[in-house]
Each structure stands twice: as structure tokens, then as C-alpha cells.
Fold:
Amino acid sequence: MEMHQLRYFVAVAEELHFGRAAERENISQPPLSFQIKKLEQELNVQLFKRTKRKVELTEAGALLLPQARTILADVQSAKDTASLARRGEIGRVRIGFVHSASLGYLPQLLEPFRAEFPRVEIHLDEMTVTEQLVALKKKQIDIGVLRPPIADPELTSFNVVEENFVLVVPKTHPLAGTPSVELSSLAHEHFVFYPEHRSPAFFAQLTKMCQLAGFSPKISVQANTMYTAIGLVGTGAGIGFIPESVACITLPSVSFVKLSGTDNIAKLDLVYSETGLSKSAAQVVEFARNLL
Amino acid sequence: MEMHQLRYFVAVAEELHFGRAAERENISQPPLSFQIKKLEQELNVQLFKRTKRKVELTEAGALLLPQARTILADVQSAKDTASLARRGEIGRVRIGFVHSASLGYLPQLLEPFRAEFPRVEIHLDEMTVTEQLVALKKKQIDIGVLRPPIADPELTSFNVVEENFVLVVPKTHPLAGTPSVELSSLAHEHFVFYPEHRSPAFFAQLTKMCQLAGFSPKISVQANTMYTAIGLVGTGAGIGFIPESVACITLPSVSFVKLSGTDNIAKLDLVYSETGLSKSAAQVVEFARNLL
DNA sequence: TTATTTAATACCGATCTCGTATTAAATGTG
DNA sequence: CACATTTAATACGAGATCGGTATTAAATAA
Structure:
């Protein structure tokens, strides 16, 4: 049972006329008659009752017709799928991201992307920067969203978000309610920090930021996520830094204070490996680039 | 996109090895490679990532695989359908029947038939004898179940049920409760009869039966169905005849009495036209014949 | 009876598929 | 590091298949 035989069968079944069906299929009538006969021989059943004057479907033909149509439609749909896949408009993209990207950048990127590419399945995994770099190498994720800088020469990256840090303080702290504060005035404070092993570069950035302001931060406790950091600040464990976009999480026990001064910028980069990047992942990358 | 290309594609996708896939499809490796390449060219997308050492599906290939399997399975199912249709084990059979056959004969025939041929769709239409004969000619039904005799030489028929008539009388009638009665003793009674136009032969049979017993029946009212006849007897409109199998319908207001004497046989015939009988209808006819 | 319509048949040429032989490249081994 | 082995791709030729043209046979209509 060949594809063209099914096409021819459907054409004859719909036209009920070999000549017109042949015309519709852009072949001449004799080979069409031949192919129908061949199909009938293979199935060992008469599909059409034909007199010299009239063609009609047999019971078997009528049963076969909808199935033939389904098969041809499925073939078309398979072709469409291939076409979408070629353009990266269908597929699966696995994205790793640091927890702090989930509030600001990720929705900003993915909401419009999903609207334009509804058939691209996005698989999200919250991971540390370190984990993301490993997963990118192992091809376990296609794209990482993390805090720069990254050193690996095999990975491509570009900056997608730049925002200021803000200070989180307990409601009971003298700074609570202050519009802004100089970083250098915080030398005596105790800090809720982030563990070095999860994001060495981010840790280094924060430390260097403090040192440029003239002090070494006294770390009272380390929090795995910024959400817990805010919580810990609320319990009086110290004060902390978070990127502005995370400050949309408010607790009754904490206040946010602007940091004045330069070089207190929290960056977010999109990272991927050029080699073996899937078409749909490339679409996400391109989309992110155009968003800038 | 040809059928064999889909088969080859699925084989390679499952084996992930051109040599083994070729063996499985009973062709040699070069033409298989060629067909896959051709398919990729038509779809304009790479389906496999192949090094000289390893074959794996691309994203597009992985998306195509389930669809290809579906298509191949549907083709197989279409072949199965054709095979069943050839043997008359699938299809639609339209059966016309007189109302009085619905209680006794029809379930007796159709219940075991449906068990053996579950994919044959049975379409039932309650019709008068006259209507059935017309519908058979017009090919509106495939088979009729009616009360003989029939005269048409183009129709084939055989007897499927022979049963005695019983007498229906009101509970208040002197005969109520009597075990049996001679037909000839009913000359003075009024009868609930059946209209001649619905089944001329049946009407004639009943009339002749009475005349052989020595009287002409006095008809008080005519009932379209035997069910209404029983009801009318219950209201005191007269007494009536029904085939034994219909006597399973009881009303508190009526009694049934056996008729003694010969030639009071109600017959039911199965009728069909040999010409243009569908395979599945032929299966029903054969099944009915074997049931005897 | 004749003209017309329509599917089937006969035959030929072009294309396609498949097989054999061979090549090229990657991996594993002595 | 050279060599054997594995595996997919390439080259080419034989046979099958498909489709085209010309024609035939049969059924209907005039």
C-alpha cells in the first residue's frame, strides 16, 4: 500500500469518476486505473463497483475511505512538524536559571516567547551558577541564566539584565525607612551573604564591592536563596544585598534601602554553547537578544 | 514521503544502526542510507546525527518518530479493515422486521450473531410486511423478517420460525382460564384483527384459518401492532389471535388460551435479494440458516 | 443504428529502487 | 604509532515500477 495509491483512491472515491480523478491528481487515466486495481489486488477486496458508465464505492471502499483520509492527513501533519522543527518553532528547550532570575527576567523573556512560539516546550530548572556551567557542558541544559562573569571559552554569553543592588534591613534597624545609604557607612554591620560554592563569581563581586567601599563584610550567616536571605534579615540575623527586581518580595519585618554610589550593579547573563545548540534553543537565544 | 521511507526511518530510529536496520528491512545498507537521505531532503531537515561511528536522532527526528509510527500503524489497521470487510466481518446490515418478531426471533438471532461478529453494525427498522418488500426492492434494507407467504420471484426467503397461534381473551370472558379451545367454537365471537394493508398475506392466513373452521370472523376493530391488539382485547373490544411468542406480554385484564386443531401455525420468514447482497448481510443470512 | 462517454488494455520510455563493489573515516589494539 | 575493524557514504549497473500515448470495449443517448 503506497502513498500515491492512497491519494489516488481518495481522489476516485471523491470524484466517483476515473477521468476527473486522474486530472485532479495530474496523471492520465490509465495509470490511475492500474494503481487502483493494484491496490485492490493487494487488499484482496473490491473497492469500487464500476460499470462502464458509473463508479461507486463498495462497502469495503466506504470503510477504507475515512482511514485513507486520516493517513494522508497524518502525513501532511508529519511534514508540517518537520517544517516547524526545521525553523526551531517546535521542540524542547531546557533552561537553567538562578533563583533570583525567576521573578524579574524569566517572565519578561518567556511570556512573549511563548506567545510567538507556542509549540516550543520550555523546561525550567532552578540551579546554582556552578551547576549550570556543568549542565551546559554535559548538554543537560541548552541555556543558562546566571550571574556573570563566566570564564569558560567554550560558552557564549551576553548580558541581559543590569540592575542596582538594594539593601535589606530589619524593620527595627536604624536605617529602616531611610531613602538611601552610602555603602561605605556599613563597615560595622553584620551581613547575610550567599555561599561562595554556589556562585563564586557573585560572591566575589559582592565582596569586592564592599572592599571598594573600604571594608571587608562581616558575614553572620549564608543563605542559599535570596528569598531565605530576606527571611533571615527579618529575624535579625543581619542586613543583606539583593538585586532590585527581587525586592518585590516584601515581608512585614524588613525594609529596603537604596544604595547610593557606583559599581553596585547586579548583572544577569544568558549563557549557551554554540556547538550543538538546537534550533529551538537558538530561537530562544535570538529572541532574548532582540529583547535588549 | 513514501511508505517504505517511513518504514526505513522507523527501523533506523529504533536500531540506531544503518546496517542492522537494513537487515531488519531485508534490504542492503546503501539503498537504505539513500532513502533516508532522500526523505531528509524532501523534509528539508536532518533526521539523524551520524558520525562514522554513531547514529542518533536529531530533535526533528525524535518529533517525527511517533508520527511515523502512527501512520504505519494506521496503514496496518486499514489493511485489517479491508480484510475484515472482505469476509463480511465488518460493515452495516439493515434489517426490517415486523413488530411481532422483536420479542421472539430477533433477539434469538442477533444476540449470538453480535457475539461472533462484534464489528458488524446492525441497523433495525420496524416495518410492515408491505413496507419491507418495497424497501428490499429499493435496497433500503438488506434483510426482511416478515410473515409469509411472499410472491416476488426476485427475492429469496426461508422459514425461520413456526409457532402456534394462541387466543387472547379478556379476563371477564367465559373462556378465560380454559386450557384450550376449538377454533370452530368461536364463530359467534367478535375479533380484534390486523389491517389488511399492512400485511395482506397475514390477514389472508388468519381469515382462511377461520373459514376452514367453518366461519367468517366478525371484525370489531383493527390493531396496527399485536401489542395494541392485546391492549384492545383487555378493554373488551373482542378476542384476538397472537403467535405464542408474543404471549410473553401479559396484562392483568387478559388471559391466553391455547387453540386446538391443525393449521393454526404462525410463520416468520427471512427475506433478502441475492443480487447485490453485501458480504456482511450474507453473513447474517448464513448465520440465520445455521441457527435452524 | 450511430455518436458519445468512460474504463480497461497494450505497449513504450523514463524514473526509481535496490544490489554489489568500493571508499572514507572513526575507533580500538598490538 | 601503525594496523585492523567497524560503519556509513559513494559509484554504478540491473530490474522493476510508474506514467504517458494510442487504442479498445462496453454502455448510454440520440
Notes: Chain A touches chain B through 30 residues (CB under 8 Å). Residues 4, 27-28, 30-32, 34-35, 51-54 of chain A lie near DNA strand D (CB under 10 Å from a C1'). The domain at 163-266 of chain A is CATH 3.40.190.10 (D-Maltodextrin-Binding Protein; domain 2).
